[in-house]
Recover the amino acids of this structure.
């Protein structure tokens, strides 16, 4: 079982509609603002058979609950299948975790959800504590026309494993260039770069 709680600070740009000098409907600009808060809570459960020490493969399902307030959550209850596959050998871990969810309940005034999320992982352990990592989160909003809903970041970073009071933990700092970004009315809705900091509390078997 894996559950994600996200606190999100989300910049937004709502289109300002009007009439062009030629008298035609047009997007005159964007009203920019920022909202922050708790986003969707997303538990995912996997059935993972024992395939030996080199492979971890799992099949399961994911559900999303809109626990936030405002635009930082989806406003919809969504669910769908999930899959993971990782290969472990020496200092290397290579693999991916993915899911596709569809909304089936929630605020009728909010947009329907049909989203694919793929989180790849390429990790190389430098020594007992330090590791290199590339873990881009690739996403596609299938409700957007002509493939305009894709996010494809490229990059990576550095991580550190440690114990605090006997509890295993790890922290990482990663930077990604957003090579493909979602668009609306010809405008890109994401910046060129994403910086991710992560702190994980580990519960190994």
């Amino acid at each position: 079982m894996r559950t994600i709680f996200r606190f999100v600070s989300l910049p937004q740009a709502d289109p300002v509609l009007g009439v062009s000098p030629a008298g035609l409907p047009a997007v005159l600009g964007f009203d920019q603002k920022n909202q922050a808060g708790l986003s969707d809570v997303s538990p995912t459960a996997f059935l993972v058979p024992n395939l030996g020490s080199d492979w971890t493969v799992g099949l399961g399902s994911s559900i999303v609950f809109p626990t936030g307030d405002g635009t930082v959550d989806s406003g919809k209850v969504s669910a769908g299948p999930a899959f993971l596959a990782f290969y472990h050998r020496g200092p290397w871990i290579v693999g991916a975790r993915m899911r596709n969810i569809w909304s089936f309940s929630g605020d009728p005034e909010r947009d329907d959800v049909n989203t694919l999320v793929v989180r790849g992982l390429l990790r190389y352990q430098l020594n007992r504590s330090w590791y290199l990592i590339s873990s881009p989160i690739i996403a596609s909003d299938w409700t957007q026309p002509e493939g305009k809903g894709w996010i494809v970041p490229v990059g990576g970073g550095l991580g550190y494993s440690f114990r605090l009071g006997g509890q295993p933990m790890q922290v990482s700092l990663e930077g990604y260039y957003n090579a493909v970004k979602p668009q609306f009315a010809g405008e890109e809705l994401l910046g060129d770069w994403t910086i991710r900091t992560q702190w994980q509390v580990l519960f190994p078997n």
About this structure: The mean pLDDT is 87. Residues 137 and 182 are 14 Å apart (CA to CA). The radius of gyration is 20 Å.
